[in-house]
Amino acid sequence: MTLSRHFLKSVLRFVCCALLLLAIFHSIFEKETRALLPQSQVDSSELTTLQRFKLIWKTGGSQLARIIRATNPWLLSISISTMGLAIYLGALRWNLVLHAQGLELPIRRTLEITLVAQFFNSFLLGASGGDLIKALFAARETKHLKTEAVTTVFLDRLIGLLSMLGFSVATMPLFIHQIQNAWPLLLSSLLTCGLLAIGVTSLYLARRGWVTRGWLGLFAKLEATKVGRHFTRSIISCARCTHRTSLLFHMILLSVAINALCVFQFWLIARALDISVTFSALALIVPMVVVFSAIPITPSGLGLRENLFVTFLAISPFEVPHGKALTLSLVAYATTVLWSAFGGLIYVAFKDSHKLAELTTPTPPTTN
């Protein structure tokens, strides 16, 4: 029953993704077709709905292909390398948290599991997400610090999310006029500020042990259950890490560098596609799109991410053509898939020697 439920959820997510992509592609292709062909030819009464659909997709598809063919390959290559560097820094950030919990893991091993997690995020969607793989990996590295090891994944994600949200909020004053006059950008900006406030509050509570003395009685009750003991250890683990100012500073510094590289990657792709958009504009838009597309509505945010990019980049003074905005999002996603495929090769090559197979293979029950 559980497998059937997960399978149904996955199917529904893929259907939602397909519908979103179909809607945005058709809308953009129709606009491109109307701009290239006389309106009478597009809306001809002699054409059936199917014929009009084929005309729109043939004309719009050829325009999209033309944009892709005109892409600067050198800038595109640099953008791929930039993303690889961002992945490495992400592995380094997680490695710092692991070491803070007493897990002396080599950076090479941390990078391997990070790439494998990237693979699971992009290709094997559903219950076995990238964060789950990282958590399982961290837990299997130790016998006595499993809870603390899993907590490192949560803390690493929290710091990364806070930095990304802060990156976007920091650029909002530069575009306050555009935000006020475009409701999609205004709504997204308010949501971004709200998420940042929640994240900062969570980090503050983590530094304080998540509770005040008045909660100690509740903690005593939690200690009586197995789940409660794990929960309490997680809270103590978070507090221990966040109280180390040097560790927190280095994690935030790495997160800022990762976000800057992410925005720089999109800027390089934009330049490769001959899109006139500034780095500061992308610093506002990219983090918001990345955060919102992480909502588990569609697989890897596909479809949702493209709609957001097209909507935000069409706002004045950006005024990026819909076709180019769509291509920007798809090319950026393609670079993600490329690195994810590399993580898949690592998984296949080293799953036995590095015990990666244990991460996705259930442990058989022991018999007495």
In short:
With 368 residues, the chain is mostly helical. The chain has helices spanning 2-36, 39-42, 49-69, 73-100, 107-122, 130-140, 146-171, 176-181, 183-207, 216-222, 226-242, 245-272, 279-293, 304-313, 322-350. The chain folds into 2 domains: 2-62; 73-359, no CATH class.
Could you characterize what this model shows?
- With 368 residues, the chain is mainly α.
- It has two domains: 2-62; 73-359, no CATH class.
- It is 76% helix and 0% strand.
- The chain contains 15 helices and no strands.
- Helix 4 (73-100) crosses helix 5, helix 5 (107-122) packs antiparallel against helix 6 (130-140) and helix 7 (146-171) packs across helix 12 (245-272).
- The radius of gyration is 23 Å and the shape is globular.
- The protein starts with a helix and ends in an 18-residue tail after the last helix.
- The model is unreliable at 359-368 (pLDDT under 50).
Helix content: over 70%
Radius of gyration: 23 Å
Count of domains: 2
Say how many strands there are.
Answer: 0
How many H/I helices?
A: 15
Termini separation? 29 Å
State mean pLDDT (0 to 100 scale).
76
Shape: globular
Low-pLDDT regions:
359-368
Strand content: under 5%
What is the H/E order? HHHHHHHHHHHHHHH
- Major β-sheet annotation: none
SS class: mainly alpha
